[in-house]
Amino acid sequence: MELRQLQYFVAAAKAEHFTKAAQRLNIVQSALSSSVRALEQELNAKLFVRTTRKVRLTAAGRALLEKAEIVLDAAKDAREAVSAVAQAKSGKLNLGTVHGLPAFVDLPFLLARFHKRHPHIDVRLIQGGAVHLLEKVRNGKLDLAFLPMFEPPADIATVTIACEELVVVCNKAHSLASSQVVSLAEIAAHAFVEFEQDLGTRKIIDDLFLAANIDRKIAFEVSDLATLMELVGHGLGIALVPESVACSQPQILSVCRLKEADACWEVVLASSATSGDALPRRFEEIIGSDAGIEV
């Protein structure tokens, strides 16, 4: 049983005439008659009583008409729902972001712009570690995720959306406060305030020290940027953070640049490499128009 057969059947039932029904459907009468006969054979029931002037439904035909209209209405709703999602008129967009997303990625602003442009799209946002979020992208539970730069697997597509230099931040009374430029070796002797494993800039900074074969002391591990900055502000340690974050509290914090030029906080937008969904692309367009990035 096909939708086309039900469509032809309902048209004939409404018109009570095969020729008129065929004309309304813009098909030849023989095609409609053939479709109805095939439907009767499949159901093993006579659906119409045929006369020379008109056709009328049998009891079986009346029973089928009620159900056929429900099926056709549901099919129409399904087509409209799919079309609305494809045109970004409705649907759900699931986003993920690492904790401590840097200030140069203004996610609330991007979400507000997206909502203004697509007010009927439901947006869900979660925070988590990079590994956790990446796994959700891979299994389809997230459409897009803001993550630190990484080497993506074959099934993940990424585009760099932001990059900012990492600088040393410390309390103004700290011994490094008067320094303008410091090296990894110099700052390794001081206590660090860091994100927990897999959060924020932790992997980037760990990789910097690992590549330089330098050990460091981590005194505090936190899960959010605000706590990290408060601990540094109270003189309990130093931290490496994006420059825009470091300069947000000039009254209590001092900033030192690193001699190592490759110390930067890069943010990528990760998505499934095989997904052709329209909603993630619409959000990427918002990011591209805001930052001048081709995504």
Structure described in brief:
By secondary structure, the protein is an alpha/beta fold. 42% of the residues lie in helices and 25% in strands.
Structure description:
With 295 residues, this protein is of the alpha/beta class. The chain has helices at residues 3-15, 18-25, 29-43, 59-86, 107-117, 130-138, 184-187, 202-211, 225-233, 243-246, 278-291, and strands at 48-50, 55-57, 91-98, 121-128, 144-148, 156-171, 181-182, 191-195, 217-222, 239-242, 253-258, 264-272. It folds into three domains: 3-86, Arc Repressor Mutant, subunit A; 91-157 and 272-291, D-Maltodextrin-Binding Protein, domain 2, CATH 3.40.190; 162-265, D-Maltodextrin-Binding Protein, domain 2 (3-Layer(aba) Sandwich). The protein contains eleven helices and twelve strands. Strands 3, 4, 5, 6, 7, 10, 11 and 12 form an eight-stranded mixed sheet that branches. α1 (3-15) packs across α4 (59-86). The chain starts with a helix and ends with a helix. Mean pLDDT is 87; it is low at 291-295. Keywords: DNA-binding, Transcription, Transcription regulation. InterPro entries: HTH-type_LysR_regulators, LysR_HTH_N, LysR_subst-bd, WH-like_DNA-bd_sf, WH_DNA-bd_sf. This is HTH-type transcriptional regulator TtuA.
- CATH hierarchy: architecture of the largest domain: 3-Layer(aba) Sandwich
- 3D shape: rod-shaped
Report the structural category. Answer: alpha/beta
Q: What distance lies between the first and last C-alpha atoms, to the nearest angstrom?
A: 44 Å
Strand content: 25-35%
Low-confidence region ranges: 291-295
Question: Based on DSSP secondary structure assignment, what is the total number of beta strands?
Answer: 12
Instruction: Quote the CATH topology of the largest domain.
Output: D-Maltodextrin-Binding Protein, domain 2
What is the CATH class designation of the largest domain? Answer: Alpha Beta
- Radius of gyration (CA) equals 31 Å
Keywords: DNA-binding, Transcription, Transcription regulation
Protein name: HTH-type transcriptional regulator TtuA
GO molecular function: DNA binding; DNA-binding transcription factor activity
Family: Belongs to the LysR transcriptional regulatory family.
